[in-house]
Design a protein that fits this description.
Two copies of one chain form a homodimer.
Chain A: H1 3-17, H2 22-58, H3 61-92, H4 96-129, H5 137-163, H6 167-190, H7 199-231
């Protein structure tokens, strides 16, 4: 979470004073630890959405089971990250932007944890309909595109958290816009004259599309937090 | 957020020392302010879910518009509460349980804000299908029950946040279990042989049921946080 920009600023501040503040150094190490853990969870979420959508689109039950089995690990890592963030708040009493970085880490871990849940929901749909495909032929291309955008968003998210390169945030938000547009397309198809799906298919498609859309929303909300941490305009990041 | 139990404990601690700590007193006032604001948002969320489900169940477009128009107020209040919590973290450097109370207020405001969004989604469904009812005759009783449980949960939530009476938390969680059970019933109906709904009805019913279920989940997750703040077993409250 510290980012190169922030670390550089801290180093400048320290060198201006002509000495290194040891408390400050410990704090920077702790922020780096928070960042590393966010990246670790984001990597697992990326694996989950990749596997879950593959399981979903190809009716692969082994992959679906893998996603379902791995979700508790994401939940545990999120809890541990929260504990670390709370400990930092307790020991370091950070102020200003540092404080917002730690608080935002709590928010980001909640979003990542939820993204893991949504990947699991998609895997559970694949499991329930196995050996059938969840989505009928006519919508498979749309769902493949949605999945690709969610995987792209999760890939960018991992890179964004690792590098703090805010240009990635804008790309990620674009990818979420694409998911939202495809989500609307799904409803147009389901509500169109050509839709032949039984109620079960309609329910599955509606839920799956919603899960994929919410996954993208959470990724975008994290990206917006990183953007606003970088710009300093925190309040604007909240309604995301 | 302080609760009578906590305030009493603080007063005891202060009187044991034979003096009142003025910093401590300011902090208690600030925690009371956080609590008051959570209650204020919970009241608005209660109004929203009551109006949204009434609009939904009776095809009342004026009520639906009222809910949609009032959602930004909930969003703003949640942002302001977050700013206050961050300021308290900055100025007071709370430790142990106090720190967890402030951090949990940030989490609770996020859940309340999301509950407001879900009420708005329900109102938007009512608006879109007006003058028709969203839900067909055969499912109206089920949705009326779901709405009643969500309203009950929101009512208990407001009381719980106001009084910190943890017995209310257990009741609230029961109400959420009832919503989950009804949510399953909706799917059984939609997937049953007797279902005559067009795809549009199937989509609407699926989404509406999901929104009502998520509303209850968020209420229950707040209740669990209050429970665990009371018991001290914080980590167990996280996966909710």
């Amino acid at each position: 979470m510290t980012g190169n920009g922030c670390s550089a600023a801290v180093q400048r501040a320290n060198s201006n004073e002509g000495k290194i503040d040891p408390m400050r150094e410990v704090f920077q190490q702790e922020l780096t630890e928070v960042q590393d853990r966010l990246v670790e969870i984001a990597e697992l979420v990326l694996d989950s959405i990749r596997d879950a959508t593959t399981a979903f689109n190809t009716a692969d039950i082994a992959l679906a089971d893998k996603v379902i089995a791995s979700d508790p690990t994401i939940d545990e890592l999120a809890v541990e990250l929260d504990e670390l963030a709370i400990e930092i708040l307790y020991r370091q009493n950070p102020v200003a932007r540092d404080l917002r970085i730690v608080v935002s880490a709590l928010r980001m871990s909640a979003s990542l944890e939820r993204m893991g849940d949504l990947a699991r929901h998609i895997a559970q749909l694949a499991r329930r309909r196995y050996p059938d495909h969840v989505v009928p032929e006519s919508l498979r291309d749309t769902f493949t595109q949605m999945a690709a955008h969610d995987i792209h968003a999760a890939t960018l998210l991992e890179q964004l958290l690792r590098t703090q390169d805010v240009e990635l945030a804008a790309k990620l938000i674009q990818s979420d816009d694409a998911v939202d547009a495809l989500h609307k397309t799904v409803f147009e198809t389901v509500l169109g004259d050509g839709w032949q799906g039984e109620a079960e298919k309609t329910v599955d498609v509606t839920l799956a599309s919603r899960f994929l859309e919410r996954f993208g929303d959470h990724a975008a909300s994290i990206a917006k937090k990183v953007q606003y941490l970088s710009s300093g305009d925190w309040a604007a990041a909240e309604p995301a």
